[in-house]
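Thread: "does anyone have the structure for this chain?"

Original post by V.I.:
We have the sequence but no experimental structure in hand. Need at least a predicted one for the grant figures.
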Amino acid sequence: MAELAPLSEPGLVAQEVAGALRVQERSGETLADTLTYALRDKKLLLVLDNCEHVAEGAAELVDTLLAACPRLRVLATSREPLGIRGEALWQVSPLSLPDASQGGPDGETSVEGLMRYGAVRLFVDRARLKLPDFTLSEENAPEVAAVCQKLDGIPLAIELATARIGTLAVAQVAQRLEASLDFLKGASRTAEARQQTLRSTIDWGYDLLSGVEQAFFRRLSAFAGGWTLEAAEAVCTGGAIEWEDGLDLLGGLVDKSLVVAGTSTGGAVRYRMLEPVRRYATEKLEQSEEAGEVKDCHAAFFLALTEEAEPELEGSRQGQWSDRLEAEHDNLRAALSWLLARRRAQPALQMGAALWRFWFARSHLSEGTGWLERVLVEGEPEPSPARAKALEGLGWMLQFQGEYARARATYEGMLELSGASGDKANATTALNSLGTVAAQQGDPERARAYLQETLRRSRNSRRR
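Reply from O.Q.:
Generated one for you, tokens below.
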């Protein structure tokens, strides 16, 4: 086994391998030739650990050795492939995690249920090294699950987190993880410097990137919950990064283990960052001068997506488009929050108005109500198609939740707005909705009056 992490130059790989194998240099030939001669008849597994920063030198030596030594096998650990013939890649995934969407005493936060997951087992095992009587209990199980989820099952991160057990309770560890990556610091004096903290580990990979790769990496942190190639090309290119380079840059970050490529959804591969990596990238973006511009691009992309989806949510492809918006829900939330924080009231109103049928169809009723109330308060009170749509959507969701008085007031606002702008179609819709609310409130006379007026206006519209 040859440890390559301490090396500073690719040209030193052969020397490190020769030292591990106790092969002496010979005059008149290269060290690679000497190694080839020494290994040509041996059946051997050569492990090269941490190749990423000297990948060129490692690739050149491995290619030479394998071509001349038929019984030699090489296992290389690296954050990116060596890129030589015959290389078979084995992606080391994070440890298995409990599903954050499930919980309760009989679900994923039960002791028996949690111990099925590799991340939790590692947490418990390492916690016992610090506190021998540590046990997973019904009381601390939710906090242990939360820590493992926050760290996305990354083994090193879990080991660093458990280094605090004994000094801190599990609940305190979970709280402090929200504050800073610097909390994840180990106590080992023998671990390499880059493995002493999670920040130094990610620094190691970040520092190996080119300037353009670093810019693309930090811009990707604008996404929440993952993204597609199309979204990355729209949001993360510009300036020194050409649009046509987006695919290669994204693929390179996947190869370097800084981005994870997930399963296809609707024909498109989705990408994401492990949460500690995303937090690091977010810090880098906030430290740059481009954070506002990147988040503006992110919001613009998802506003355009929602406006494209809006008419489809009433058509034959509503299920397909609802699925797509569900996959992007975290990004939609982030975009709306950004627009409201920047006091971009009109784009926020347009986005909320375009999304209400999605929120309604997917039963995000409380959340949708909250967003629509916010965008209506922040937006201009003047009549506009977006404001009328937002009022209609808010009324639907309030009515469906049984809040008839609030729904009625919302529809009355829609009727007044539509009347002021001469929007007869929306005025008719508001009257119809007021009639259904009155019927649900047990007021048949009022319901009949609204619905008769709706019928009269509809007939007049058809005659024209």
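V.I.: this helps a lot. DSSP finds 22 helices and six strands in the chain.
O.Q.: and The first helix runs from residue 13 to 21.
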